[in-house]
Amino acid sequence: MNFDLTKIVRPKILNLKPYRCARDDFKEGILLDANENPHGPTLKEAESCAGLNRYPDPHQVEFKTKIADLRNTQSSFKSENLDPLTPENICLGVGSDESIDALIRACCVPGKEKILAMPPTYGMYSVCSDINDVGLVKVPLIVEDNSFQMDLPAVLDTLNKDPEIKLVFITSPGNPTAALVDPKSIEALASQWQSGIVVVDEAYIDFAVTGGSAAPLVNKYPNVAVLQTLSKSFGLAGVRLGLTFASKPLAKVLNAMKAPYNISSLASEIALRAMEPESIFIMKNSVQEVIEQRSRLLKDLTSLKHVADTQVGGLDANFIMVRILGPDNKPCNELAKVLYHKLASESKVVTRFRGLEYGCAGCLRITVGTKKENDYLVKEFAKTLDSLAR
Ligand SMILES: Cc1ncc(COP(=O)(O)O)c(C=O)c1O
């Protein structure tokens, strides 16, 4: 493979000496090294927060070991005998939003270099590229057949013509498309383009039924990075914990770059609890429940008048997209928007209007709720749509 990380990472970042503290060497004793408060947390019931006067562990090796083991067993590429993921393949972030920003900061020179994203897609790639003054090149997903797959020839063509593009963001399963991107096309991109990093954002991977995680690919392709999060399948959005799986040299760069104590002791403790076998069992059950409700929700909503009966995107995430049709049977943003507003303001059910996204005319994105929530949504959706389209 013709990939050279030293040509991809910005020179100052590549040569960064990570912040070191005395506790990298000594963790026990009378700790007078980090200017903490020795009297403990200044809270009324401080006993329940024992230890929070101390800085957290900067490395989280135990959590990384456990999540690496979990992902080693769940890959689309299991049969290929790839080197297993280890803690050295991981960098943790404050949600995968921080991980997205970190990759851009590590690789793209502001005001000069660029990232590539594939609309319709997650909004933070564009926000982070703006924040970092990095250009955003768009190559849309294939929308004509509602598959929302990557247009590999168009992506390769764009990359070959523009050497300033350093990162390609693939959201798989997609948001708002809910479609897993074919893992073989991701591998094809990684093997045919080596002047940057292919970032696969797998925030919704545990809900995918058509394939598993691409994370183990990072040990085959040093130009692949995979983002995951505890915010979705693990039900821990409030904890703010995201992960980047990457080749060991790239993970080392990202770890050197991160703020030393970005993961709080509280987040770290909950994350470790989430890796216990009982918690994994609960996570899998809750994913199963979402998967069952997802099919039911899709069936109920697409059988309504004024909702397209062809599936929009995939069924690989914890949300679905439905397309609202006007009286002429064409996608209708006006109707979809009024429906969205009425559902939120009168029925008190908040969905997401996505009709202005590429290939999503007339679309609402709806998170799969509990059975009770879905029952209510379907009832209100049918009633409101009926009254509006009359
Ligand atoms: C595709 C995608 N990536 C990343 C994120 C961010 O997740 P986190 O909560 O880990 O920051 C989201 C959140 O909705 C998302 O949809």
UniProtKB/TrEMBL annotation:
<keyword id="KW-0028">Amino-acid biosynthesis</keyword>
<dbReference type="GO" id="GO:0030170">
    <property type="term" value="F:pyridoxal phosphate binding"/>
</dbReference>
<keyword id="KW-0032">Aminotransferase</keyword>
<dbReference type="InterPro" id="IPR015422">
    <property type="entry name" value="PyrdxlP-dep_Trfase_small"/>
</dbReference>
<dbReference type="InterPro" id="IPR005861">
    <property type="entry name" value="HisP_aminotrans"/>
</dbReference>
<protein>
    <recommendedName>
        <fullName>histidinol-phosphate transaminase</fullName>
        <ecNumber>2.6.1.9</ecNumber>
    </recommendedName>
</protein>
<dbReference type="GO" id="GO:0004400">
    <property type="term" value="F:histidinol-phosphate transaminase activity"/>
</dbReference>
<feature type="domain" description="Aminotransferase class I/classII large">
    <location>
        <begin position="29"/>
        <end position="379"/>
    </location>
</feature>
<comment type="pathway">
    <text>Amino-acid biosynthesis; L-histidine biosynthesis; L-histidine from 5-phospho-alpha-D-ribose 1-diphosphate: step 7/9.</text>
</comment>
<keyword id="KW-0663">Pyridoxal phosphate</keyword>
<comment type="similarity">
    <text>Belongs to the class-II pyridoxal-phosphate-dependent aminotransferase family.</text>
</comment>
<keyword id="KW-0368">Histidine biosynthesis</keyword>
<dbReference type="InterPro" id="IPR004839">
    <property type="entry name" value="Aminotransferase_I/II_large"/>
</dbReference>
<dbReference type="GO" id="GO:0000105">
    <property type="term" value="P:L-histidine biosynthetic process"/>
</dbReference>
<dbReference type="Pfam" id="PF00155">
    <property type="entry name" value="Aminotran_1_2"/>
</dbReference>
<dbReference type="InterPro" id="IPR015421">
    <property type="entry name" value="PyrdxlP-dep_Trfase_major"/>
</dbReference>
<keyword id="KW-0808">Transferase</keyword>
<dbReference type="InterPro" id="IPR015424">
    <property type="entry name" value="PyrdxlP-dep_Trfase"/>
</dbReference>
<dbReference type="InterPro" id="IPR001917">
    <property type="entry name" value="Aminotrans_II_pyridoxalP_BS"/>
</dbReference>
